[in-house]
Every structure is written in C-alpha cells, then in structure tokens.
Amino acid sequence: MQNEDAVTLRKKLEALIVDDLQKQLSQGEITGDRAAEIAELVLAMVPEDITHEQLLKVIPQLDDKATELSGVVFQILSEQDEKHRTEMIGKLRLSVGEMIKNA
Q: Which long-range contacts (CB under 8 A, 24 or more apart) does 47-55 make?
C-alpha cells in the first residue's frame, strides 16, 4: 500500500504546479510548449508510486530541471521544514515532560 503522506504531498505538489503553470501561461511568461515540457518532466520525476522519502529527494531537483518551478519548490520545502520542526518540538516536549515526571 502506498504511503499516505506521499500521496498527499504528491497531490499538493501537482496542484501547485498546475496552478503556477496556468498563471505563467496566462501572463505570457512561458509558452504552451514549455508548459507541456515541464508537465512531462514532472510526470516522469514524480510517478504515482513514489515514496515519501523519494519525493522529498525529487522535489528540490525539479527547479534544477525547470527554473519555472522554483516558487512551487520553495513553497513545498518551506512547508515540509515547518512540519518537521513542529513534529520535533512536539517530541521534545513529550521527552521533557517524561523527564520531569520521572524526576
């Protein structure tokens, strides 16, 4: 069974990319051909069966291949960093709470 976190993150990434490409197309920043190239690139790099760990490694590489995706990559990585930080703070609080309780 596929990792639920990977499915959620992949869907969010794809939605952000679609929105961003549509915006860039409507503003004349990219051509339809370039948007199609980027879409093919993303589909190749982010298959449906990708794991969460693989996805976290692939996301930073997307804007290396298509600089047009830098805003999306930054947004996703920032959100993932904040999520990780929040999880770590929660674990730290639990550990400190246990240490105080056992003292």
A: 48/2, 48/10, 49/2, 50/6, 50/10, 51/3, 51/6, 52/3, 52/5, 52/6, 52/9, 54/6, 55/6, 55/9, 55/10, 55/13
**CA-closest candidate to residue 62, choices 81, 39, 79:** 39
**Dist CA 95 CA 43 (whole Å):** 41
Could you tell me the pLDDT band of residue 3, with boundaries at 50, 70 and 90? confident
pTM: 0.80
